[in-house]
Amino acid sequence: MSPVTLTTLREMKRRGEKIACLTAYDASFAALLEQAGVELLMVGDSLGMVVQGHDSTLPVMLADMIYHTRCVRRGSKTAFIVADLPFMSYASTAQAIGNAARLMQEGGAHMVKLEGGAWLAETVHELSARGVPVCAHLGLLPQSVHQLGGYRVQGRDAAGAENLLSDARALEQAGAGLLVLECVPAALAQQITQSLTIPVIGIGAGAACDGQVLVLYDVLGLIQKPPKFSKNFLQDERDIESAVRAYVKAVKTGAFPAAEHSFR
Ligand code: KIV
Predict the structure, then answer these.
(1) For residue 261, how many other CB atoms are within 10 A of its CB?
(2) Over the stretch 69-97, which tens digit does the pLDDT of each residue have?
(3) Are 50 and 77 in contact (CB under 8 A)?
(4) Does ligand 1 have an atom closer than 6 angstroms to the CB of 202?
(5) Atom of ligand 1 nearest to the CA of 46
(6) How high is the pLDDT of residue 14?
(7) How far is residue 69's CA from residue 83's CA, in Å, rounded to a whole number?
(8) Percentage of the chain surpassing pLDDT 70?
């Protein structure tokens, strides 16, 4: 299989082919996931919770992200790798440029992801202008959990929905190449997906997004209290690779997420 690029992902959106994405934090899983058909690997700062045992993503440091991204990159031959810029590592545009460069040069990321709305447009523009592909992240922003007052669905009222739509447009306009939409009502996610030309990857955002991402450890049933939008794909399969193949198939056919994994 030839390497997945941003062009591949854009073409998939154009053709209506769903993009299968999972988080990955190490070389062995990176190799297994892409072998099972996952096109997009996200080295998420969720590793702070599922690998490091913190109760949020806030304690994750840039050095942690570089380390795990490097591990994933070593295990991967073809997947497109997106790595999170952790909390406060992109508080200014200058910081974002320096830290994104490290994630790409030292970690081997193909793209960096940052959480936030239109206030990040200038940063996204400056990164893109320097050849750094950027994935925006809207909706529930885990790095802002204390400001949001918990892990809650976003964009349920008219004003919140309008803000999300205009943030998404502003970030695309600024040069973002992908968008992650987390925990937003399915109808709103559909509207955002249809109004952007860049691929939209949903997590708790309904089936109309161009692709889906889940935290790998939720898919494998390792988390005690998994979120409503996730699914344990291992419970009906004989091994991890079959579980990941089942996830990929469910994403590609539109069987996942079902209504029970989505919000209204
Ligand atoms: O941190 C993370 O793992 C993420 C993805 C689930 C989108 O942001």
Answers:
(1) 20
(2) 999 999 999 999 999 999 999 999 999 99
(3) no
(4) no
(5) 1
(6) 98
(7) 7
(8) 100
Query: Ligand 1 in contact with 143 (CB < 6 A)?
Result: no
Average pLDDT, the chain: 98
Please give the full DSSP string across 238-260, using - where no structure is assigned.
SSHHHHHHHHHHHHHHT-SS-GG
Q: Shortest CA distance to 113 belongs to which of 37, 197, 182? A: 182
Using the atom order of ligand 1, give the atom closest to the CA of residue 45.
1
Phi and psi angles of residue 35, each rounded to the nearest 5 degrees, phi first: -60, -35
pLDDT at position 1:
79
Q: How many angstroms does the Cα of residue 210 sit away from the middle of ligand 1?
A: 16
For the question of whether the overall pTM of this predicted structure is more than 0.70, the answer is yes
**Residue 46 above 90 pLDDT?**
yes
Task: Give the whole-angstrom CA distance, residue 224 versus residue 157.
Answer: 31
Is ligand 1 within 6 A of the CB of residue 115?
no
CB–CB of 132/100 below 8 Å?
Answer: yes
Query: Is the CB of 69 inside a 6 Å radius of any atom of ligand 1?
Result: no
